[in-house]
Amino acid sequence: MSGALPVPAPAVFPETAPFWEATARGKLLLSRCEDCGAVIWYPRPLCPACGRPRVSWVEASGRGSVYSFTVVHRNAVDGYREAVPYVVAYVELEEGPRVLTNIVGCDPEAVTIGMPVSATFDDTGHGSALFRFRPA
Fold it and tell me: 64: which strand partners?
């Protein structure tokens, strides 16, 4: 199994602050357009489907499945260099959007397309947490 992945603090902007505050509480929020119903990833103040500004926050289930992934065997960035091998994946959430993330809590060779996963949260120490996924 790989070493622990670093947990850098994300850049937090006013329009994404509720998202990052929720991650610190172990909750995954998604944006949903109040006009067309699109569930949106990455959080933003305008709906990319219809362009309207009526977007609200909804709590996601935190469940999904691996849509695609790769195992990283080399990385020159401090912290990530020591964590190899690790998995970078697209997870398709039950709510629809696909998010780019890491799969943790299992041997990278055990990850498969379609594998059920659930969100886990790694505290950054700065009022937010990075969400990653582990086998469900």
Answer: 93, 117
Could you tell me the pTM of the whole model?
Answer: 0.92
Q: Would you say 6 and 79 are in contact if contact means Cβ atoms under 8 Å apart?
A: yes
DSSP 20-46: HHHHHTT--EEEEETTT--EESS--SS
All residues at 6 or more sequence positions from 51 whose CB lies less than 8 Å from its CB, including other chains: none
- Among residues 113, 114, 131, the alpha carbon closest in space to that of 122 is found at 131
pLDDT digits (tens, 9 = 90+) for 94-117: 999 999 999 999 999 999 999 999
Residue 116's CB is within 10 A of a number of other CB atoms, namely 12
Check residue 45 and give its pLDDT. 87
Q: What residues are paired with 121 via a beta bridge?
A: 131
pLDDT for 117 equals: 98
Residue spans of the domains in the chain: they are: 17-135
In this predicted model, what pLDDT tens digit does every residue of 42-67 receive, in sequence order? 988 899 999 999 999 999 999 999 99
- Closest Cα partner for 127 from 30, 18, 20? 20
